[in-house]
Structure formats: C-alpha cells, structure tokens
Amino acid sequence: MRVLGIESSCDETGIAIYDTEQGLLAHALYSQVELHAEYGGVVPELASRDHIRKALPLIEQVLSEAKLQRQDIDAVAYTAGPGLVGALLVGAAIGRSLAWALAIPALAINHMEGHLLSPLLEDNPPAFPFVSLLVSGGHTLLVDVQGVGQYTLLGESIDDAVGEAFDKTAKMLGLSYPGGPILAALAEQGTAGKYDFPRPMTNRPGLDFSFSGLKTFTMNTWLNSEQTDQDRADIALAFQTAAVETLAIKCKRALKQTGHRILVVAGGVSANTALRERLNAMIGIETHYPRQAFCSDNGAMIAFAGAMRQDAMTITAASPTFSARPRWPIDELSPP
Length: 336
Ligand code: KG4
Ligand code: ZN
Fold this sequence. Notes:
By secondary structure, the chain is of the alpha/beta class. The protein is built from 11 helices and 10 strands. The site of zinc ion has 5 residues, from helix 4.
C-alpha cells in the first residue's frame, strides 16, 4: 500500500510517499521560515496561504521523484490536528479532495502521533512498549506507548512547551527566528559552569513540566548582566543545560515508573545535540530518535502514521466532509 502524507499544521509544508513494503519512496519539505522571520513568529494567515501555494507543486514533485502517477497512490493521510486551524484546513481540503477524486481512502492523522511514530522510520526501530518524550514548539509530553494508538499521558507542560521556551528565550537574547537551533548553536560557545539555572519542578514528585519560570529567570540574568557576546553565549548554555537536565530527570522518572527500558524522543527539540548526549548517557536505557530531517515537521511521519493505521484507512472512505482539530490530545486516540 502506498500512502501519500500531507503535513501542514504550522509553518512547514511536508509531503511524502510511504510504501508499506518498500518504505519511504520520496519526501519533500518547504519551510516558511523566511516568510515569518520579519514578524518574529508564525503569522497564521500567511502560513495558510503559503500552504495553498506549495502543497500541490510538492505533491507533483514527490510523485515524480518516486516515479509514480497519482493513480499509483492507494491512500492519503493528512494532519488533522493539533495545529493552526487555517493551515490544517488547507492540508485537509487537499488531502480529502485528492482522495475523493481518486476514489481512495483518506485518513485524518494526529500530528503528535506522527512525531511519536517518526523514530520507527529508522533502521532498528524501537520495539513496543516504550516511553516517548515529545518535545516540539507546541508540546512537551511524556507518553507511555504500548502500541500504535495505545497512549497513556504521563506528564506534560503546564505552561510553555520546551521548544517555545527555547524560541522565546532566543528572542529575548536578541537572536533571530526560529530561535531554538540558533540558541543551541550559540550555547556551544558558552562557558560551562558560569551560571547554574534552576531545573523547574524536579524537586517534587510527578512528571509534569513548567518552562516559563526558567525563561523568566534567564531573562532576568541577561538583563542584570553586562550583555556582552560572551554573556549571551554563557546564558544560552545555562538555559539549555537547565532545560535538558529537567527533561532528562523526568525521562528517568517516567522510565522508572513504567518499568520500560526504551526511551523514544521526537519533535523539533529532539534535534538538540546536548539533549541527545544527555539522554544517551543514561545507563541501561536504549534511546531512539528520528533522523535530523524528521525531527521537525515533515510529511514522512504523516505518511508513515497513515500506513500504521491502514486498517482504519480501508473503512474511512473519502467522504466529502472533513474537519480539523486545533486541539487534539494524543491520549484520545485509539488503536487502528
Ligand atoms: O516539531 P516542530 O518542528 O514543530 C512543532 O510541532 O511545534 O518543533 C519546532 C520547535 C521549535 O520551537 C524550534 O525552535 C525547536 O523545535 N528546535 C530546537 C532545535 N531544533 C528545533 N530546539 C532546541 N534545539 C534545537 N537544535
Ligand atoms: Zn511538530
């Protein structure tokens, strides 16, 4: 079965084709970063309009790279939430229309499930059950994963997502958008041990996170410093170290609580090298990540999640009605 995946939940148009026998056949991504850069963040209406411009050419591109015709596609999977409603509706409208025209099934995919399953696209995929740490611009989730669609939420951020905290902190330090990867690069020039920032909510039990206090602490430290380039790098490193350490402490706790020995990390922040190094150093734990290109939003994870749910596909006929869910908690999903 060949599944066309369409991702358009935020500022990336991602298209891919996954074959249940041959694996990933082609994928393409268009990032809107430049479009939003001058505003310092994603402008939802501009995002929707750009998805409209890019989705169809990217579908053509991916089909031609895979040397396929439209008729060779057996099903369409599109991101139906969570995300920006206008942006989601573009992918949903294109996905449903295409499926309806080709008389093939269409399946609404949860974006966070896409991230969660993305490490399974790699060689030596993790075996169920495992603990999943999902770290993106909109979410920080710890999930007990028993199988596809069998998700128990263990903990989440009660305020800013960790990616959001990276982005806001970067902005405050005068770095450009999107700040996460830029802050991480700057942290490499920081002096280790110059500052020691708090690890929020680690000294009490539980698996929830809070990153807004760390963000404010970072801002106050910056404002009270001489604001030299070295101060900026030192503070970036202190922020990143505290964020990474907080995530690591909660992962360790989640693994202990569930008894699982496998930790799977995904979402934009899973690209962070310091985070990977810290988690890889946990003794007796097997760690898995997506390849760098699939940490951030992409079509491959949506095509793959669709393929994992192909049973649901066969019963979901491409009806002309569709909807998008700006909020869609991952633990509302059920097995295919
Ligand atoms: O998964 P993603 O592309 O989009 C959402 O679903 O939100 O995640 C984007 C987030 C942004 O906040 C971005 O700054 C962050 O991931 N990010 C990073 C790194 N690369 C991307 N944060 C820290 N270090 C990185 N290397
Ligand atoms: Zn995402």
